[in-house]
Amino acid sequence: MSLKKLLKEKGYHRIDLEFTKTSHLELVAKINDIEGNFILDTGASSTCVGLEAVEHFKLLAEDSDVKAAGAGATDMLTQIAQKNSIEIMGWKKKKIDLVLFDLKHVNQALTDHKAEKVHGIIGADILKKGKAIIDYKNKALYLK
């Protein structure tokens, strides 16, 4: 039996992934019913949206004491947007809190390598909630 068939029987949703030119896994997700491009990052503890995408997703930003670090930048100020919905290819969750911070350095690195900019990062919080299984060979993410 294939992994795809086995996981479908267990109630998982299959999400197609694309490799960017920077070898990141990318997917399309909807935040509050608005579509955007996201990098899948198992090393990111929280799902994040770039400050420049706050209006795009109609997010309500609140100040946060959390400092973000990653991808060569540290001590970045963040905001938080609480109680949002997320949908990834039929898999849905409500009451999701999103970390908002400046993704310019991430998008600059992507565009430097002729890759598309992203609206945000899908992090470990969503992967845990969805009991994620990543199939690198077949470029698929499974969420339950």
From TrEMBL:
SUPFAM superfamilies: Acid proteases (SSF50630). One of its GO terms (molecular function) is aspartic-type endopeptidase activity. InterPro entries: Aspartic_peptidase_AS, Peptidase_aspartic_dom_sf, Retropepsin-like_bacterial. Keywords: Hydrolase, Protease. It comes from the Bacteria. GO terms for biological process: proteolysis. Pfam families: Asp_protease_2. Gene3D superfamilies: Acid Proteases. This is Acid protease. It comes from Christiangramia fulva. The lineage of its organism: Bacteria, Pseudomonadati, Bacteroidota, Flavobacteriia, Flavobacteriales.
